[in-house]
Amino acid sequence: MLRISPAPHITSKVSTPKIMWSVVAALMPAFIYAVHIFGERVILLTLLSILSAMGSEYVFQKLTKREIRISDGSAVITGILLAFNISPESPWWLPVAGSAFAIFVVKQIFGGIGYNIFNPALAGRAFLTASWPSLMAGNWAPPASGTLSGLPTQAIDGIAQATPLTLLKVNPTESIAQSLNSTYMLKALFIGKVGGCIGETSALLLLIGAFYLFFKKYADWKISLGYIGSVFVFSGILYYLGKTPVIPLFHILSGGVMLGGLFMATDMVTSPVTVKGRWIFGVAGGIICVLIRVWGGYPEGVSYSILIMNMFVPLLDRISEKKIFGR
Fold first, then answer.
1. Is the pTM here over 0.85, yes or no?
2. What is the pLDDT of residue 157?
3. What is the DSSP string of 210-275?
4. What is the DSSP letter of 270?
């Protein structure tokens, strides 16, 4: 009595919606803290981003007569992550435009969930950065219990009006570097008492959410360790050579390294399936991030580094594929 059916023949009780909604739950600690330090506007921007993502997906699937899958949680994740990549002072239409682009152009045109080449939220951020750079590179707000720079207002005159990475890019003096390398700054970055994008302020809460996904095996720690670890090691080498004035710990705690390395680089669809490919993906992405930060025109390099590595995923899977016994 054999039942013949198409592959795959190995099934699992873990469904796509279960994984997606688990990721949403893992993002909630950082979201709640962002509401606490930036105010209720975070809720508005995040909801608008989610509704835009879900609405765009529904309209596209309706027009193309495909199965309506907005309840699987993937569009919700895109909306949250897109909102996490903008300023809490952004105009209401910015997350709407970003999420619509992410779903329509980056996800659905390529075939929907499981077929998109690029991470939709990061591609949406890149689209917003190219279209409205002044809104994406400025318009920051200080947290409720800290300063925009993360340093005391009296530390160095004028630095409280810029984010840590902006300070490093536009004014990399010895005094600024000492302040950015201070224990006070590193603690502010780890806990979340600095200005910046909605979802990248608290490294601690992002780690808590990511460890939950690692424990459930919904995300691969190898990619995260490869990405964050290579940022730490490569920036450390450059610091030793005198090419960057800040220590490696500042690089991994500032900006979007934690958010990108823990929640975006690990995207199942746009990351390699082989173990060796995932290590290469993470390490190469981290190196590119540091290269952009140190020598590029932008103070941040996370989004572009991951998007660049997304393009190499098919190649990484091919060159790292295990040989079948006997071939």
1. yes
2. 45
3. HHHHHHHTSS-HHHHHHHHHHHHHHHHHHHHTTS-SS-HHHHHHSTTHHHIIIIITT-STTS-SSH
4. T
